[in-house]
Amino acid sequence: MQHTQQEDFWAGDFGREYTDRNSRPLAEWNAFYRDLYGHTKLEMNAEFLGGLPREARILEVGCNTGMQLVGLQAAGFTNLYGVELQGYAVEKARDFVRGVNILQGSGFDLPFKDNYFDVTCTNGVLIHIAPEDLPRIMGEMVRCSGRYIMGYEYYAPETTAIKYRGNEGFLWKTDFAQVFLDNFPNLRLVKQTLYPYINDAERGNQDVVYLLEKTTI
């Protein structure tokens, strides 16, 4: 499958620098989210996934070094998978997180059978997919999920391009849950929460966590 411009960008040196810059142990990871929103990522996960059995099969698409997977492990989940495009991040993830199945691959071509997971999720990944390519990667997440799709992403009511460290064409924010719903009529919105940045009230920046459920398989 031909790579997108964004995949090539993240698979190269910029992606390696991002991985080194954003890899943190669990305590620092939680402190980062607490400083940003007033909530830890573990608390945010619990709000959306806390009622699931701990043996639920969960796939993170674009897991980078596995910080989110470590957080899910800390919450007691035992059946975790990750797919990551960047080989360097996969190598670091295998040292950073234990007992998780982490594969190198693309979210546009997930190497799993239909309905294999209870949950497929992203954490700050769809923001780096060109808007015209979102239905493709979302379609793979829907295909591989037997029930839920969860996302944690930047939020805006309309698609907005953002210059990212001097680069254009690699970062967007939008209403990602609505994009799912517009493209996949077999989904319904279970829950969505907006998390404003506590130190950025004037600019109004906020992120979103959403949980979608398949109504038919």
Automatic annotation (TrEMBL):
Pfam families tied to this protein: Methyltransf_11
Q: Which Gene3D superfamilies match?
A: Vaccinia Virus protein VP39 (3.40.50.150)
* Residues covered by the Methyltransferase type domain: 59-144
Query: Which NCBIfam families does the record match to this protein?
Result: Pse_Me-ase
What name does this protein carry? Methyltransferase type 11 domain-containing protein
Q: What organism does the record attribute this protein to?
A: Hymenobacter antarcticus
